[in-house]
């Protein structure tokens, strides 16, 4: 596995590197400024949501940890066709753009 920091910075655009559609949709990609992100569909008792996590640039390992999350976004699945790759990709792109910073406690 190649870490994001090891990749050449040739393509500085948003891209989804892996996407799985359906009721358990998930995937990951790169924002374009060195940060990576992941998304998944989350089922809760009262709602279904698309959950996005944006990670800090230059991760130390292949699996992001909780402290690597710098922004999050949650979207309702009400108007997202999770079986259609284009619809899901557009929702992910919009959610990544609207992600809010995660508050950090001072140590």
How would you sum up this structure, described in words?
With 107 residues, the protein is mainly beta. The chain has one domain. Helix content is 12%, strand content 35%. It contains 1 helix and 6 strands, in the order βββββαβ. It has one helix spanning 85-97, and strands at residues 15-20, 26-30, 36-43, 48-55, 69-76, 100-101. It has a 6-stranded antiparallel sheet with strand order 1-2-3-4-5-6, covered by helices on one side. The N and C termini lie far apart (33 Å). 16% of the residues are buried.
Question: Count of helices?
Answer: 1
Poorly predicted runs of 5 or more residues = 1-10
Tell how many strands the DSSP assignment holds: 6
Please state the average pLDDT score: 85
Q: Radius of gyration over alpha carbons? A: 14 Å
Distance between the termini: 33 Å
**SS content category:** mainly beta
**Which shape, going by the Cα principal axes?**
globular
């Amino acid at each position: 596995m190649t870490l994001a920091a090891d990749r050449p910075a040739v393509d500085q655009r948003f891209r989804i590197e892996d996407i799985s559609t359906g009721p358990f949709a998930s995937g990951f990609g790169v924002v374009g400024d060195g940060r990576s992100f992941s998304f998944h569909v989350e089922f809760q008792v009262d709602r279904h949501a698309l959950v996005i996590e944006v990670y800090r640039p230059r991760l130390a390992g292949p699996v992001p940890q909780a402290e690597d999350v710098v922004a999050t976004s949650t979207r309702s699945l009400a108007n997202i066709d999770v079986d259609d790759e284009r619809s899901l990709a557009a929702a992910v792109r919009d959610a990544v753009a609207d992600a809010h910073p995660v508050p950090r406690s001072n140590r």
